[in-house]
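note to self: the first set is below, dont mix up w the second
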Amino acid sequence: MLSLIIAESSLELVPRELQSHISIKSHAKKLGKYPSEILLDNSWHFAAMKGLENEIKRGRPDIVHLCLLAATSIPLYHENEIEIYVHTIDNKVIILGDNVRLPKSYHRFAGIVEKLFKDKVIKTDDSVLMELKKMTFDELIEMIEPKSVIALSPDGVPSNYQSVGKELDDSCLIVGGFQKGAFSDEITQHIDRTYSIGEQSFEAHVVISRILYEYEKTIFM
């Protein structure tokens, strides 16, 4: 079983120190919600985020949406051969259930995640679709207990998708869920091997699609 962690993801509700900013209040009003109930999104909140601590790794929930669509739209997920976790920049973890069908529309996705942050769980009558827990990266790795932890980063050892895909069985794959920057020390201390895939840098959802396809080939073909 492969575990995928989208780590330090740019996914959080508007922090307290920004909730009184005019751009936040205006956007929240349009959505019919309180500022504390909406996702931080630099498409709307760019002015408010200026000077925010760790600004370059925050306010991009769309990255997580695209990554999750990539990871849940493939045979690997439908055959229950992968567990998916979203670790957020403020140390929360979203645990994805089996056979969850995420909305293709970003606006619907954002609404579901905002509800998840409020209620802590999204479920049907007979199954849990998504669950939110306060959890550090250390605690998440301890819970998963993988054979090895492999990360993909431009700073890693040069390799290719095919080679890394063959190493992933019973491992935990780490891909950053942020726009810019590097993994924090909290993440890197748990990584056994870090690889850089190819000479060209791709967005996280493209990397996830390509590496998971190569892993699929090792178990389905």
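second set (the one i keep forgetting abt)
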Amino acid sequence: MTESTTTLRDGHTPVPPSPAEIRTERRRLIESIRALRRLLDGRRAFELADRRRLNREARDRGRAEAACAKTLQRVHERRLRRERSLARRIDGLDGKREHQERRALLVLRRESVESSLRATRLTTGDVNGIGAGLIRDLAAAGIRTAADFTRVSWGKAPGGKGGEVLYIHRPHGRKVHVNGIGEHRGRPLMEWRRAAVARAKARAPQELPPDQRHRIAEIIEAERARLRAEAAELPREAEAAREEAVRLRSEALSRLTEAAREAGRAAAERRAEFDAMAERLLALQAELAAHRDRYGDAGRRLRHAQTRALRPLPAVPAPYVPRDPAIPATPGTPGAPGAPGAPGEPGADSGESTPVNDPWAVGAPGTSGRASLAWLLPVTLFALLTVTGVGEPGDTTPPLWLRVGSRLTALAATAELLRLWVPRRRPWTAAPMPPGTGAQSAGVFLALAAAGMAGSGDADVLGPAWVTGGLAALLLASGTGRRKKG
């Protein structure tokens, strides 16, 4: 403890310090305590920021775990889909082989029929009524065998003159008309072709040759082996995808852990600084109390400052451990809603019963100390008085000072309530309204009402106005005292 004392020149008999020296020393101690209190005022904001950091870190870890779990689920589902698809394709290979054999047989029979039709030439005597001359005319039009035409039909004559004539259709859609080939010769010509087609189909092979069947079986077996190899590769691919997802999760968690460790180290250093300042403040308070006990009162001016300087320190916050979002919250588990240790429940964070008005219990998500929505009622009332004033809705007109002063007072009350209420509604700065705020609000409202009654000029309401004003003064004094203590 530092004291300002003076001694005689011989160094033996101490002389009590003068009142000026006592006040100087007292003022120095008070100013030092004020400076430390101003520094310690930043601890609340620091603790709230640290809680937000811890919640953010827990949320980031939960997101990394959820992303990994989602990736593993997708890998599992993709493997099941591919396994089912490969199983269906392997089971369908037998039907595919039969289908390819039928297609190959159809192609073989079509080629055999076409070859037989190309070998069946139109000669004299094959069709009744068609002699050598018509055969030459048909050959000139490109019709020599049964494969050179498909059908006959009636249509308008070339150039649109001469009525309808018989057309012979070629295989590729072109049709020709040969003079002398009409209904009596066209029908036998088609009968000749139908007979040639029937003979060709009868001579066409009814089953595939062994070499083609063997070749199709080899293709199907090669496809089966490829699909089985692909199915055998699925577990290795899924395991590689799982390992990659786990690796990415581990890397993300390592980065988050390292960042959290650095942030935690910085927070611990900052918290140690606050603790050291708190210890220094306690030491200064003890020195100030000893100085007061030794030398007594230092004057009226320092009395109030000395009382404020000797106020107890704010409560030290309990350690806050956020619940991991990756762990589902169930009743009865720490961090779960309704369970001890859950944010907003008794015993949150510290494991003990935490009062609702604990200044360090606020800021945790879901805390029950959030300012009530009922404060919107006085805010709305004061906002209405800001617009209408007091004593004006009646028949009398209040004086100018009352009209202006009431509006300014109501506006100041509205702004002050909003300044206190809005931050205490936010999840990260949630807190109850300061004690005494309700009494102050009621006192201001009653004071405005008393001023309105007094400014109306009616002698009958002067008595109630004085009573209302006195009650308003009591409420204001009570609310202000509670605000200072809080």
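remember for set 2: Strands lie at 6-7, 14-15, 151-156, 164-169, 175-176.
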